[in-house]
Structure of DUF4331 domain-containing protein:
Amino acid sequence: MSSHREAPEIAKDPVADSSDLYAFVSPDHPDTVTLIANYVPLQLPSGGPNFFEFGDDVRYEIHIDNDGDGYPDVTYRFEFATEITNPNSFLYNTGPIESLDSKNWNRRQFYRLTRVVDGRERVLAHKLPCPPCNVGPLSTPKYHDLVRQATYKLSTGEKVFAGQRADGFFVDLGAIFDLGTLRPFQQLHVAGKKLFKTEGEPVNALDRTNVHSIAVQVPLGQVRRKASRYGYADRASTIGVWTTASRQQVRVLGDRVAADTAAGPFTQVSRLGNPLFNEVVVPMSRKDLWNTLSPAEDKRFAQFVEHPELAALLPTLYPGVFPNLEALNKSKKPRADLVAILLTGIPAGLIDGFANTTGDVQADMLRLNTAIKPNRKPDRFGVLGGDLAGFPNGRRVGDDVVSIALRAFAGLTVPLVDKTFKPDAAAAAVTPGLSAADVTAPFLGDFPFLGTPYDGFSNPPAKKS
């Protein structure tokens, strides 16, 4: 979660594993959108001497659909190359790294950025350097300076960054995957009631782990299709966003005289749009297939949105807590609310002042209405909390997407399409119990927004004598 190790095959390929995707109108520059895709999840900060990095043999892409067909109209492609300064040293660095061209830094990574519009490619930048991993106070003493040096404003208007960041996704993985336990409700769990007398304290399983992020801040005019106006109800205001990773189809392992080589066309091995989609909607037997497909083909997964397994599990795991949801499940009515949230976007008229529909094509994408301005005081529950600039209208780094998704699956959003349905009282309260306050590295107020990565020396913090 949100998409860490979410499918059997990609769990074996972490450098190509897309773990989180964010898309929001930039609060620091509201005439732009910020798109962030995280890869290489669950990084132990002290994981040297081979610290984490992007894959030189992986093509990373962030896609934007601005006409609602589920295919990319604009793509930002990141391709990486690694250089070793001293091939006779085992060390990542031989002294403090105080600049991106430091001679003390032995293993550097660079990338090429390409913008693809309607199939036409334009290389925006060659050999942009990434910052190093945050090794520790002796090796990377002024890490903020390195990040600043590695953040670029391009002549074409984009701002771009690629490198290590703190994982800002907060989730109690240990409890959720222990038979769907939610610690604030653990005493009500069908098995937990035998073990727990009171609610428990949640644990952010991803805190103090790092990821690698590709991030781009783009002027609105470069992601939206041309239109005479961009009001919240105008279709041209809404874009769909997803990220992918691809590998070449053939890999030949080398021997003592030849290096490994890759050949053939690139084929997609990872995908992410809405958080939790492949994680909790797509069944195990189809997760690897889903990762290879375009969002335009997601109609084949609509049955799992209309009748989600998670909605059926909640009344079973928490007997007596979700009686109205249980009755809805037994009625076999398709969950049109979830189809709108996850596959088509929410049409105008259901929520005052809001819409983010992209049309009839069912496609898993983060849908962002770019006409809705950033909220100066964001609510972590996004649209459910009355904050129309938050998830499922795109996704900001502090949005509590797990609680929002759980409440939607629990039936809180059914009245959007069925005014006669009364959600269970628990539907508005169900949560793993975490928030952005449970992320040790604070989010930033400007690009690239995700916090400074944890360093290996201080993680966990040294005990004072």
Notes: Residues 63 and 75 are 4 Å apart (CA to CA). The longest strand covers residues 238-252.
